[in-house]
Amino acid sequence: MSKEVTRRNFVQRLSAASAGLFALPWLASGKGAVEPTIEKNMNAVKRFFPLGFQWETQDPFLFCVHHEDQFPKGNEQMGPDPEYFKGRHMGDDFIIKDGFRMYHGKKVPGFPGHPHRGFETITVVRRGLVDHADSLGAAGRYGNGDVQWMTAGKGVQHSEMFPLMSQSEENPLELFQVWLNLPKKNKMVEPHFKMLWRESIPNLKLDHGKVLVELIAGNWGEDKAMSPPPDSWAFPAENEVLIVNIKMEPHAKITLPKAPADVNRSLFFYEGDQLSINEESFESYSGFFLDPTVETHLSSNDTPVSLFLLQGKPINEQVMQYGPFVMNTKEEIKQAFDDYHQTQFGGWPWPKYDQVHDRNKTRFALHADGREEIKDV
């Protein structure tokens, strides 16, 4: 495909990248936008609020999205049968119908090629598979417990498609995508992605095996996660970045490790009926900003509970964000648009923007330097 694009295509591509998963208006702040929430002084809990499609986070994180779709059986193209397309806004389908959304996909659900600059994406796939392709020539298929950590740096295009691999059974998908900011000194580093394969992610069993802590980033006591990409804000241990997924059986208990007072800690209760935090009860699909210096005890009740935790020291820099670009000033945002218009961040080396890989491929990662990792199903 030619690297030259018309102005119309350029605008369409950026519009697509700015919608849905990337539906973020101009944001100028040192800490990010704050929406009205319920205020209550409850020991460890500084704030709590209901969760929507896009979850509010704290610096150094920009936001988190929880995708959950009950995709049907796949067809030969690894998408739903066209009969499911009726009544949808194809190419911009974010309302659940028949249990799923097509997002920006028109044949296969997902997010066709779109640009990023100035931050990182961390994609935690609990169920289902994601096909990755990017402007550096890198590619991959990952999921069912894998995590992809991508540093966009000075600019990269990538696609994230959700292939419906099974033609005989439904193809459920559940994932988190987290946007982690980069400090000014690292916003223009070379793009890079790293795979955290499920086989290498520490799984800590606590409370006699009734609690599972999936350690994606950071330290939990003496246990350490895999190293993040080298230019990430999470790379220096002193930044106290911690990302964990916690699964609790009924009537289980866990105590969160304490952290310094200047750390921002966010906890998301996304599965289960009720959670107790220091003996205060909360309903499901709630978010919490916690005081990391206070001993925080979590308890499940009669049903299993799932929690997602993000923490880190704030970068404390001006954030200027527009759609797929996150910089420090308006001038830098304008430059990002100009650079993308002129260079396409390297162009698109794949046959199509909604690139999916061969059905017979297992989990794999092909890096820009030609190095390839292959995993079993």
Mind sketching the topology for me?
Elements: H1 7-18, E1 27-29, E2 38-42, E3 45-50, E4 54-55, E5 61-71, E6 110-116, E7 119-127, E8 129-134, E9 139-143, E10 147-151, E11 156-161, E12 171-181, E13 192-196, E14 203-206, E15 211-217, E16 219-220, E17 223-224, E18 242-248, E19 253-256, E20 264-271, E21 274-277, E22 280-283, E23 286-290, E24 296-300, E25 305-312, E26 319-322, E27 325-327, H2 330-343, E28 364-366, E29 372-374
Give me some keywords for this one.
single chain, Jelly Rolls, 8-stranded antiparallel β-sheet, mainly beta, 377 residues, 2 domains, globular, 29 strands, 6-stranded antiparallel β-sheet
Please state the CA-atom Rg, rounded to the nearest Å. Answer: 20 Å
Distance between the termini: 32 Å
Write down how many β-strands occur, each being a DSSP E stretch of 2 or more residues: 29
CATH superfamily of the largest domain: Jelly Rolls
- Rough shape? globular
Main β-sheet: number of strands, strand sense, barrel status?
A: 8 strands, antiparallel
Low-confidence stretches: 1-41
Strand order in space, largest sheet: 2-3-23-20-25-18-15-14
Q: Please work out how many helical segments DSSP would assign.
A: 2
Q: The CATH topology of the largest domain, please?
A: Jelly Rolls
- Report mean pLDDT, rounded to a whole number: 91
Instruction: Tell me the number of structural domains.
Output: 2
Percentage of β-strand residues: 35-45%
Helicity range: under 10%
Counting helices, strands and paired strands, the structural category is: mainly beta
CATH architecture of the largest domain: Sandwich
CATH structural class of the largest domain: Mainly Beta
